[in-house]
Amino acid sequence: MDHATVTGVSLDPVHAFTKPARTRIELLAGLGVRGDAHLGTTVQHRSRVARDPSQPNLRQVHLIHAELHTELATAGFTVAPGDLGENITTTGIALLDLPRDTVLAIGATARVRITGLRNPCAQINAFQPGLLNAVIQRTPDGATVRKAGVMAVVLNSGTVQPGDPITAHLPPEPHAPLQPV
């Protein structure tokens, strides 16, 4: 985690699967990414809104590690920053291994708190057939491994752009493992 950095940033004002790459994004405390369809204090994902629109938005910012893109390329998939709907693509930090409530300091002032794992849906196969099986796998003992990144809420506003450093601040122990949100 010594050299963790942002490698890409993306946003889309409409609910689409992929998000176009940007030169920078602005995180807004308590809301998410300025101009993104998932901005808000309450849940913005359409399926979750249909169930209960008053739920808190624990999915304000979606982060994926670029190492997943490399792993998927080895399996024959072509995935670039923003293609899986993430707002921030990282490198050099094992996002999936971090405990819930880890705070990531990104760039000069932005701070996000990790709330849990992204639970990818069948839409991912419409993007590239077979991709869902590549990002959701099973361990030998049958446990589900979700590789499609983490979700976070914005604690401190700030601009985020490629090249920005990322520092992880772990919560007090005992650490809670990430669960889908």
From TrEMBL:
This is MOSC domain-containing protein. Residues 19-169 form the MOSC domain. The lineage of its organism: Bacteria, Bacillati, Actinomycetota, Actinomycetes, Streptosporangiales. GO terms for molecular function: catalytic activity; molybdenum ion binding; pyridoxal phosphate binding. It comes from the Bacteria. Transmembrane segments: none annotated. InterPro entries: MoCF_Sase_C (IPR005302), MOSC_domain (IPR052716), Pyrv_Knase-like_insert_dom_sf (IPR011037).
